[in-house]
Specification:
The complex is a heterotrimer of chains A (439), B (588) and C (234). Chain A has 439 residues and is mainly alpha-helical. In chain A, 40% of the residues lie in helices and 4% in strands. Chain A has 19 helices and 6 strands. Chain A has a two-stranded antiparallel sheet. In chain A, strand 3 and strand 4 form a beta hairpin. With 588 residues, chain B is of the alpha/beta class. Chain B has a single domain, classed as 3-Layer(bba) Sandwich (FAD/NAD(P)-binding domain), CATH 3.50.50. Chain B has 12 helices and 24 strands. In chain B, a hairpin with a 4-residue loop joins strand 13 and strand 14. In chain B, helix 1 packs parallel to helix 7. Chain C is an all-alpha fold and 234 residues long. Helix content of chain C is 35%, strand content 0%. Chain C has a domain of 138 residues. In chain C, helix 2 crosses helix 3, helix 2 crosses helix 5 and helix 3 packs across helix 6. Chain C is globular. The chains are: A mainly alpha (439), B alpha/beta (588), C mainly alpha (234). Chains in contact: A-B, A-C, B-C. At the A-B interface, helix 16 and strand 6 of A face helix 2, strand 10 and helix 7 of B.
């Protein structure tokens, strides 16, 4: 709560300052970063591809609603943000928007009438997109998306968040960098393609970078040390992607690319929000692009260059020994593991390739926040059907079989078992996650 | 007729193994395909999910995954003089229901028949002379093993079979079955490890000069991805295979091998709770026009037009539909004419239970295809003339489950209740093992399927009537197996050994579970007078009707039938794709 | 678009970024350990379908079929009568899955399976009075009132069909015994095998389903007690 109060204070002060200083200053809109020739036509499918890379569909489509017609409620502590209708409907959508209007929304987070978008829209990142991609995306929305008349509920947040000019001040801090993408000189084409996708449309930093004092992304590109070193969203940990123990550094480039394309690889599976990103966005990227993302992430890794090679003979951990012995006097945590988890993840905690994720060394298991782990134990997980791996594999939830105390004991065991070292989980932690499902 | 649906290129009747295989293969041709499944939809999670699935009472005893006789069953009699009575509650065989069919609740044992089995009649005559009894109607398959080999291989790699090759392209491989028909490559996954019982059996068999090898089965020994990019995870030996869906993505099934990939195809559709009542024929009777089904959701009869009708239901239902629809002439045992219902066959098994009071078998650690086998008494290795029967068996030891209600082995003479029973379950649970002989069954004039004159199913259709009994030839085969197994059992020196082999004169008993290997009734052959479908599994009289499944077997193999069913399905699919679609016609 | 079943849509706060991260701390009220209440005593149990005389018979009969004396739990301690009552009140008792249309030939060879027109519940309902009458005529009292030794004799007579029960009821002993053993060994959620005592007694680990590392531990007794489908441990 302290943090919230602090943030509120900052925003309120900024709001007042903005009120005095900026309220009558006209909104600045960024122009094209490249002048395209007049006859520029995006390649067939390019716009849809950019839409997939930017994952526009996921937020701008309501549960059971028409694609891009908006109306998805995004709950925030500030109140409900309703995503907008971005179909080319002239009344309720963006049918009247010019390319400049469209670009301004993506680059500056402003609408044609000058109001500011809430940063739920990741314009901090979209700001890096190329003019070609902006034009292709605009063309896609104007010509390939079905117009849908759907008047979306207006977002009404409580004071001070309803003061959208406050966001202007915030934008000065967060999205004031020079628009457009800057490739890293001396790096190859694959690296820079990966960098472009990660920093721009893919908006990976929105989740995987920490947030600074003003809750802006701390690191929107690889010039920042904290870029993609892990964030926290709604109490869920978005893992670090750069440290030596992180997935993209431990895994081969092919394995990371497989994870992006199919939500599964030899070591792990995507759960929660990342599963949705694979389902709605990454599985539609070409193999080359997912390889480029994986190669880029590998190259911007911090710490040791190489992940420690797996030992020739696997080390038998004390945890594995205890589980294998199956003695009746074992503590509750490992007993629950044998009674609930061992069938798939095995006493080794290593699971099996592309099916049962490793729990030993798994970033979800050892995440700073245990919320993701608890959520999976309670509610299970599902892998999306993708072209390369069509099977919708699912893990069942244990919300009915295990009490809060039992899940706490089990999760604590998982976080301390094998080579894992993460703090214990309490029954209250479990209850908090369990209660979310009943909202 | 309440409604007619939009025409499809292909309608598949039943959505189990063969429906999924044909669906996938023909969807790749871009055809509009519809699978009709009489049962419900089901997926690994939530329908088979842990821990709810491993409920012995619900699924093992009350048979929760099986067809409910209330919704349709058949009648059974032992011979033509008896009045057939309905198979009111399931016992001896257990047809499945729902998407995936019996492919969801099988044990996973997967085989290719031995080489003599593809041409059993001519093999027997050529090798042993004129020894086939008059009433035995065995016949040759109209295709050779060499022709089927690529399709067995395909099925094994799609389904995901663990095993140890014994013969690759004629080269015998140490540790595998030296008597198997040569395969073009090894199994897709290494064999499963055996539990203690299989190990003991394998050692004893080897000591007697036999050739033990690990059971081949659709149980994943490692993580696996097949040609459709479908996946399996390694098995945990939970001991709940047969009668259960696998909660662990570890048992080969249409769900693990095909269905999610097939669902991505926009030209494929399936409808559940749609019970096909009959195949409709054109005015001249030379083609099918589609099928009529009962839609449980709307309570209507629906006509589904289609260019091609493929029967992909359980073997007994394929035959029933043909009888109801006039696809092929019904078999008459008196005149020995007609083809539909002819050569119905089953499986004859027997075995020993061995008790070792000081040994621990942990029987709950098991898989449906666990353990070790020998094929030294397989058909190819038996002198039919000398032994006086035609047939053979493979032997296997490997516990499949330790479920206490249905798998409690107690020494003969133990009281069936009271203090003595209770003491015995405490003393003997976990201290016994089994060795089984899984035997062939020939086809006979007197064992056949037709329509029952009395009993109707809930849709008002005549039920199918099964006339079946054990025959002397096969009982002699199983007694032969007993005589060979006895010395091996003795060599293992158990505290107690008791046998369960049928004796001469044994009558068919519908109550205890035996096997769900119901075969024949719509057999494949070269002669339209003795077969219902040609070598491409195409109906002789209606060229746009194809019939998959074990109903095509001219007699039953000594093995579990799924491998052959899968191989035949891929064989037929290839010929439909390459030969039939470009020019629809009778292919023979 | 559908998120993972049971999960609150997490797409929620995520993209809202800004202040959302701050709200994680939710007042923690430690949940009480779930105590499974002891079920009602068998003498107080209100059967779902069995009438008092039938309940009395089932209580008495299962107590002889799996007696309490000696090592291992009996049918009474494992609450087998509750299991039987619940099964007979449900789909099994009603023969809900079976084909029950006539014509019936109840006198057909037993090898031909269930051919009586009666459901399992009806078999219990009709056979118990017949058997009680036979007990009274032969041993002087209805079954439940006989001493244990005489009850064993009477059950043996029933098993051997010495009273020549009519064919419609001939499977009575068979299903009574089968249902008793089912109640002894089935998952506790069906009312019997109370506390998984029967599983513990014989060494069946129940619904664990996780033995990969034990396959090659040949001839070594597996040591860990059972778990039930609901997660009960013993």
């Amino acid at each position: 709560m302290k943090k919230l109060v602090r943030v509120l204070g900052v925003l309120v002060v900024l709001g007042i300052v903005a009120l005095l200083a900026f309220i009558f200053v006209p909104v600045q809109r960024t122009g094209p970063v490249t002048q395209l020739s007049a006859d520029f036509k995006p390649a067939k499918g390019q716009g849809e591809y950019v839409m997939r890379a930017g994952d526009c569909l996921a937020c701008h489509t309501n549960e059971g609603g028409k694609p891009f017609a908006g109306g998805r409620a995004i709950q925030s502590p500030m109140g409900t943000i309703w995503t907008t209708n971005i179909t080319p409907d002239k009344e309720t959508g963006i049918g009247n928007w010019s390319l400049d209007d469209f670009r301004a929304a993506l680059y500056d987070g402003v609408t044609p009438n000058g109001t500011h978008l809430y940063p739920a829209m990741p314009y901090e990142n979209y700001r890096k997109m190329s003019e070609e991609d902006i034009v292709a995306l605009y063309d896609y929305f104007m010509h390939e998306v079905e117009p849908v008349s759907n008047k979306v509920e207006e977002t009404r947040l409580g004071f001070p968040f309803n003061m959208r000019f406050g966001l202007r001040a915030w934008n000065w801090l967060a999205a004031s960098y020079q628009a457009g993408f800057k490739p890293t000189e001396g790096q190859d084409e694959q690296f820079n393609r990966g960098k472009y996708l990660v920093e721009g449309a893919g908006h990976c930093a929105a989740c995987h970078s920490p947030r600074n004092l003003f809750m802006a992304q701390d690191g929107i590109d690889d010039t920042s040390k904290s870029f993609l070193t892990g964030g926290e969203i709604d109490g869920y940990t978005a893992p670090d992607l750069r440290g030596p123990a992180s997935g993209p550094q431990k895994w081969t480039t092919e394995q990371t690319a497989a994870y992006l394309a199919t939500a599964r690889n030899a070591h792990s599976t995507a759960t929660g929000e990342m599963m949705l990103v694979v389902r709605d966005s990454l599985q539609y990227l070409t193999h080359e692009d997912n390889m480029a993302i994986a190669a880029y992430l590998k190259k911007i890794g911090t710490g040791s260059d190489k992940a420690a090679a797996a030992p020739a003979t696997p080390v038998v951990t004390e945890t594995e020994k205890m589980l294998t012995e199956a003695k009746p006097d074992m503590p509750l945590g490992p007993r629950l593991y044998l009674d609930n988890c061992g069938g798939c993840h095995f006493v080794t905690g290593k699971g099996a390739g592309e099916t049962f994720p490793e729990l030993d060394g798994n970033s979800l298991v050892t995440a700073k926040s245990p919320k993701g782990l608890i959520s999976v134990i309670l509610h299970g997980a599902e892998l999306p059907s993708t072209a390369d791996r069509p099977m919708k594999m699912r893990m069942q939830g244990y919300d009915k079989r295990l009490s809060d105390e039992e899940i706490a004991a089990l999760a604590t065991f998982l976080r301390e078992g094998w080579t894992n070292k993460a703090p214990a989980v309490s029954a209250a932690d479990v209850k908090a996650v369990r209660d979310l499902a009943h909202h | 007729m309440a409604r007619t649906e939009k025409k499809k290129n292909v309608v598949l009747v039943g959505f189990g193994w063969t429906g999924a295989i044909l669906g996938m293969e023909l969807a790749q041709e871009g055809l509009e395909i519809l699978a009709l499944e009489r049962g419900h939809d089901q997926n690994t999670v939530p329908d088979f999910q842990y821990p709810n699935m491993i409920d012995e009472l619900k699924y093992g005893v009350r048979l929760g995954m099986m067809q409910k006789p209330r919704n349709g069953t058949l009648t059974i009699r032992r011979d033509q003089n008896e009045t057939a009575l309905p198979y009111r509650s399931l016992g001896t065989f257990l047809p499945g229901i729902g998407v995936g069919g019996a492919g969801t609740h099988w044990n996973g044992l997967n085989w290719r028949p031995m080489q003599s089995e593809y041409h059993l009649r001519s093999y027997t005559q050529e090798k042993f002379g004129n020894i086939i009894p008059d009433d035995m109607t065995i016949q040759d398959y109209p295709m050779s093993y060499a022709e089927l080999e690529p399709h067995f291989d395909r099925f094994e790699y799609v389904a995901g079979i663990s095993g140890q090759a014994g013969n690759i392209n004629g080269k015998v491989v140490e540790g595998g079955n030296p008597f198997e028909a040569p395969r073009s490559r090894d199994y897709p996954m290494p064999p499963m490890h055996s539990t203690w019982d299989g190990k003991k059996f394998g050692d004893a068999a080897r000591a007697m000069g036999y050739h033990p090898f690990p059971s081949p089965g659709g149980i994943a020994s490692k993580d696996y991805v097949n040609e459709y990019n479908m996946q399996m995870g390694p098995c945990n030996h939970c001991g709940f295979c047969e009668r259960f869906g696998c909660y662990n993505y570890s048992k080969s099934s249409p769900q693990t091998a095909i269905i999610d990939a097939l669902k991505r195809k926009k030209n494929f559709e399936y409808r559940t709770n749609c019970d096909v009542l009959r195949v409709e024929k054109s005015a001249d009777g030379k083609t099918a026009t589609g099928v009529t089904y009962y839609d449980e959701k709307t309570g209507e009869e629906v006509f589904q037009p289609a260019d091609i009708v493929i029967l992909t239901a359980f073997s007994l239902h394929n035959v029933h539909l043909m009888l109801l629809s006039g696809i092929g002439k019904p078999y008459d045992p008196v005149t020995n004419e007609g083809v539909v219902g002819r050569n119905y066959s089953y499986q004859l098994t027997g075995g020993y239970t061995l008790f070792f009071k000081d040994e621990n078998f942990n029987p709950f650690i098991g898989t449906g295809a666990n353990g070790m086998c020998i094929d030294d008494f397989g058909m190819d290795n038996i002198d039919f003339a000398k032994e006086g029967f035609i047939g053979g068996a493979y032997w296997r030891s490997g516990q499949t489950n330790g479920q206490p209600i249905r798998s409690m082995s107690l020494p003969a003479g133990t009281p069936s209740w009271g203090a003595g029973w209770k003491k015995a379950v405490g003393e003997w649970y976990g201290h016994s093992m089994n060795i089984g002989a899984h035997g062939s069954l020939m086809s006979y004039r007197g064992n056949y399927l037709d329509l029952d004159p009395t009993y109707k199913d809930p849709r008002g259709r005549a039920m199918m009537r099964m006339t079946f009994n054990w025959q002397p030839n096969d009982l002699k085969m199983i007694q032969f197996m007993k005589s060979k197994m006895e010395p091996l059992v003795k060599s293992m020196n158990p505290d107690i050994a008791q046998d369960g082999f049928k004796k001469d004169g044994a009558m068919f008993d519908v109550r205890p579970y035996q096997t769900t290997h119901n075969t024949g009734g719509a057999v494949t052959g070269d002669d339209p007078k003795t077969s219902a479908i040609n070598r491409y599994l195409q109906a002789w009289d209606q060229h746009n009707v194809f019939v998959m499944g074990a109903s095509a077997f001219p007699q039953n193999t000594q093995y579990n039938p799924t491998g052959m069913v899968g191989g035949l399905a891929y064989w037929a699919a290839e010929h439909i794709r390459k030969d039939y679609l470009p020019n629809p016609r009778p292919l023979v | 678009m559908r998120d993972v079943p049971g999960l609150p849509s997490r797409r929620t706060f995520l993209k809202a970024s800004a202040a959302s991260a701050a709200i994680a701390g939710i007042a923690a009220v430690p949940a009480k350990a779930e105590q499974k209440p002891e079920p009602v005593a068998l003498t107080e149990y209100k059967p779902d379908c069995l009438k008092p005389s039938e309940w009395a018979f089932v209580m008495a009969a299962v107590a002889r079929l799996i007696p309490s004396e000696g090592e291992g739990p009996g049918a009474i301690e494992t609450r087998v009568p509750v299991f039987i009552d619940m099964q007979l009140a449900g789909d099994y008792g009603r023969a809900a899955d079976w084909y029950m249309q006539g014509p019936h030939d109840a006198a057909a060879s037993p090898l031909r399976g269930w051919q009586t027109p009666l459901t399992p519940l009806e078999v219990y309902q009709q056979a118990i009075p017949v058997f009680d009458a036979w007990c009274k005529a032969t041993h002087g009292k209805i079954f439940a009132e006989l001493d244990g030794e005489t009850q064993d004799k009477a059950l043996t007579s029933l098993q051997k069909d010495e009273m020549k029960i009519k064919p419609e009821l001939r499977d009575f002993f068979t299903i009574l015994l089968a249902n008793t053993k089912e109640g002894y060994f089935a998952d506790p959620m069906y009312g019997g095998n109370h506390g998984m005592q029967a599983w513990t007694y014989i060494g069946f680990p129940g619904a664990r389903g996780s033995y990969r590392e034990w396959v090659l531990k040949h001839n070594v007794k597996y040591p860990l007690g059972p778990v039930s489908i609901s997660g009960e441990r013993a």
